[in-house]
Amino acid sequence: MSGESWDIVIIGYGPVGAALANLLGAGGVRTLVIEREATAYHLPRAVHFDDEVMRIFQSMGLAEAILPITHVSPGMRFVDAGGRLLLDWSRPSGVGPQGWNVSYRFHQPELEAVLRGGLERWPSVTVRQRADVFALEPGADAVGLRYEDLTNGRIERASARYVVGCDGARSLVRRWIGEPMEDLGFHERWLVLDALLRRPRPDLGDHSVQHCDPARSATYVRGTGNRRRWEIALRPEDDSAALVRPEGAWPLLSRWITPEDATIERSAIYTFHSTVARRWREGRLILAGDSAHQTPPFLGQGMCAGIRDAANLAWKLARVLSGEAEDALLDSYGTERAPHVEGYIREAVRIGGLINTKAMEAVVSSDVLQGGGAQRLVPVRPALGPGPSAGWAGPAGRLLSQPRLSDGTPLDDRVGLRFAAVMRPGFAAALPNEMLDHLSARGAVLVADAAPGVGAMLDEAGAEAVLLRPDRHVLGAARDAAEMRALADAL
Predict the structure, then answer these.
(1) How does strand 369-370 pair with strand 293-294?
(2) CA 6 to CA 305: how far, in whole Å?
(3) Which residues contact 363 (CB under 8 A, 6 or more apart)?
(4) How buried is residue 84: exposed, middle or buried, by Cβ count under 10 Å (0-12/13-18/19+)?
(5) Topology at the third CATH level for domain 390-490
(6) Which tens digit of pLDDT belongs to each residue from 162-190?
(7) Are 343 and 382 in contact, with CB atoms under 8 Å apart?
(8) Same fold for the domain at 4-71+105-181+275-339 and the one at 390-490?
């Protein structure tokens, strides 16, 4: 192979590719990002992320830059054709257990600008735009790539120890792996309309609203600033070409807004899919984001899932590249992420079924609901699939709360993108110094803090100590000194 050699090549520079590059850059991993387009897409696409994703942004040092461009969402409501409240999925207004609000709205071009700007901190990361990868040559020790420099037509070569495809639903990397997606059964055409309000319309509300109308289901989303979105289900007889034009779209919007209220910034027809890759990795080729999974938007988890992919994958790649772990650790990326993302997708499909149901009694009797009167939707946070563990594996793979330490510092700000051994102070004091020294020498940050939040987090785990991975999930826990030694030995 000829051309430049890299540790990682990321194909695709959307939010997932940019997030992965930030996480790898923070660890000094030599990374090349290759992107076909010259600039980020200028119109809105994803509009929601949750507290777990904000915690990932925090870990890469960008949460404070992202927070001012967000709007905290109060949650979602389901109404029938007459506007009667059927289901209430309101979210708490304050900061939640992860240390952030539960739900945020954002404008994707603004988020991408922050993520891309964040890469300027990392000299180990290089970005090449207007470059189109067209061939991959997997080998025993590296993957060769050929790509066209679209500014001059020149064919360039590069090689990498691993290639990560963050290149979307039509992923070249997935085609090279050659495995079809698993179809989870949801395929529907919806018209997506993004509008800019000309004048205040507080009556539209801050909640997202799912209109469970048998005649035509629709979703309303309050964006940042004066941005509002409607997603409207299409019928088989609808003329798609006509509906994406303003004169076709406005009649569908007329029950909420008129041209006097807003301008249409974007209209597009999407077929919402529900698919998961059967294989997330083949040798040195790896998938992340939409190349590995696609979900209907009803839970707002599409981009969130891709950012979680990046967080799960980054620390494993860094550990394998540094020689601290065997290549087999990368197999756990797919075994952990696939069941987790499938759980979210199946829930989104079920919510889509509730929105589209023709029988309202099916909505209010669904087993995802609880309570009386206007029913409440039970939040879902699927568990990771099987992955690495050590010590007592009871809470392994769980995402615990993020406590504040005694000095007020959030745990993740103290730890950074490293392992953390979080212990009750009395338990830590009784451990041999050599064990604590071993943990520190292997890169774990030792946290033995009497803050109430730390105790509550360890109560969640049912343990005296936990070893947190760089993605904040539990590698393992300890209830006694023997289990703590097993945790230390795992590093």
Answers:
(1) unpaired
(2) 26
(3) 78, 86, 87, 212, 354, 357, 375
(4) exposed
(5) Glutaredoxin (3.40.30)
(6) 999 999 999 999 999 998 899 998 888 99
(7) yes
(8) no
Helices (H), 209-330: 240-243, 246-253, 302-321
Q: Which two tokens stand for residue 27?
A: 């660890």
- Single-letter code of the amino acid located at 65: A
Nearest Cα residue to 175 out of 394, 4, 11: 11
* Separation CA 2–CA 58 (nearest Å): 38
pLDDT in tens, 465-487: 999 999 999 999 999 999 999 99
DSSP-assigned letters across all residues of 67-126: GGGEEE--EEEEEETT--EEEEEE--SS--TTSS-SEEEE-HHHHHHHHHHHGGG-TTEE
Q: What is the DSSP letter of 213?
A: -
**Tokens coding 26:** 């923070």
What CA–CA distance (Å, rounded) separates 52 from 100? Answer: 8
Domain ranges of the chain: 4-71+105-181+275-339, 390-490
| pTM of the predicted structure, to 2 decimals | 0.94
Distance (Å) of CA 231 to CA 32, 222, 411: 36, 12, 38
**449/421 Cα distance (integer angstroms):** 11
Superfamily the domain 4-71+105-181+275-339 falls into = FAD/NAD(P)-binding domain (3.50.50.60)
Q: What is the DSSP string of 378-429?
A: PP--PPP-S---EEB-TTTT-B----B-TTS-BHHHHH-SSEEEEE-HHHHH
